[in-house]
Amino acid sequence: MTPMNEPNDRLDDILKNALRRQEAPDGFAERLMARAAQQHSTPEPIHRDSWLRFLTQPLVRWAALAAVAASMVLGVHVYQVRRERAEGEAAKERLMIALHIAGAKLQLARSKVNEIRTDQSTNHQVKE
Amino acid sequence: MAERIPAEQSPETLRTDVSETDFAEIVRRHQSMVFSIAHHFLADRSAAEELAQDVFLQLHANLLTLKSEDHTKFWLRKVTAHRCIDYKRRRKPTQLSFDDTPEPVAAVKSTDLFLARRLRELVASLPEKPRLVVILRYQEDMSAEDIANILAMPLATVKSHLQRSLAMLREKVTRTIGEVTI
Lengths: 128, 182
What we know:
The structure holds two protein chains of two kinds. By secondary structure, chain A is an all-alpha fold. Helices cover 79% and strands 0% of the residues of chain A. Chain A has four helices and no strands. Chain A starts with 9 loop residues before the first helix and ends with a helix. The relative contact order of chain A is 0.03. Mean pLDDT of chain A is 84; it is low at 1-7. By secondary structure, chain B is mostly helical. The longest helix of chain B is centred in the first third of the chain and has 23 residues, at 20-42. Helix content of chain B is 70%, strand content 0%. Chains A and B meet through helix 1 and helix 2 of A and helix 2, helix 3, helix 5, helix 6 and helix 8 of B.
């Protein structure tokens, strides 16, 4: 049979032949088993399923719910305490500013009084 | 042994049944399939062996979840296919090297040997998904439906990949070989 006369579906046959399974390299299985044994001998990480099983137990579920509720209550309490403290700090700051202003005004008044007194005593001496 | 893993057994029951000997038997039975898919896809023997070993190590870790021989075969094809794509995406393209590939043992004409080698190179140069479709179709003799299941791809896409790839292969081989009509 000459190539020119070959049927059109010959590509299928040649592809099947070209892509036939090949033998794995020599010693493939031995190398693999050695690696598998090595992997097997290393400590296994805790299996995810066992965690899932643990977490789905009723007692654990109730404990988790209680822990979440307690955390929420604690969180609200901490928030309130912090808010009260912040309000106290702000009030203290406002009081300090007010005292500072009042102090400054008193100082100004005192200096004015001193000035008037000095002027009066000077005038008295001049008259004499 | 895979036959010892009945479909209805629970994983807890399977745990005691699957031994290293069973795993070795599964490897012996399927190593050629896994290695060949990887080799035809990657066109690199050592990379194909590395990938095939990784697939079997993953199987070793998941052995208890496999329910039957068919399930094992499906799992191996699926994982190999996806690992091939991942491997190719992680690494830079390499020179195709089918030169060290042993030729089929059956008596074939020299023209066919040449065509087969050229076709392997052309298949390895196809885009990733069409390449896998062609490999699963012709190496594993799988139907388009089964390929669609393995690759999680619509059936129409698989058929389209197959048709386009075959048209391209036919054209390229004809252009290369010249006088040979295929």
